[in-house]
Amino acid sequence: MRSRVLKTGRPIAAIVVTMFRTSLLLATARVAAIAAFTSMVVLAPRALAAPVASPPAPTFQVLHNDHIGAVGVPAGAYTLTPFGGLTSTQATQRFSRFLQDYDGVLPAPWTLDPATMTFSAGTLGFTIAPAAPGTPASATTPGRRCPGVFQVEHDDRIAGIAFPAGAYQFTSLRSTCSTNMSSFRRLLARPGSTLPAPWSLNAQTGTFSTAAGARFQVKPAA
């Protein structure tokens, strides 16, 4: 059976095959274009999304020259850099607590490396470093540092805690410095070492409190 031939000189079957191939190529190109457009729509938000910025390191203001044990902490702003999963809030709370430490012995398992000013407890902890000038502080030491020092005239004890003779820095947390120093003087002068009600003493921070809350904190002067 002969193939029918159009005036173009080409068999009809050949023309049909060519048209089919052309349609197939157009369909393939259309599918590819749709797929490419879909990929652009899906990927565009990811490409345009702004990177998530890390939260800024907290800054702590030490109001007066201080110390933690034998390690001096001069007055000024400090940047705290937590690591090992410790949060900025936890680092700030820990540093504030360590500044209040009475005898410089940090609560276990915390240790301090004076060379790097790194506080660590196993794999977590934080470092402190002087902040750039003008950096606003997000936290500060509690209370008001009383001027001068309080002199304990002879070795004494209150509630089982030793207060050797010497100079002590005094921080007023409630009421005035003069009122709180007078209270401390009366407590030292009492016979025995038992605190009268409603007084209590936090041995780790040297903080004296009444039923109304914390009143003042003492620790050996540097």
TrEMBL record:
It comes from Solirubrobacter pauli. This is Uncharacterized protein.
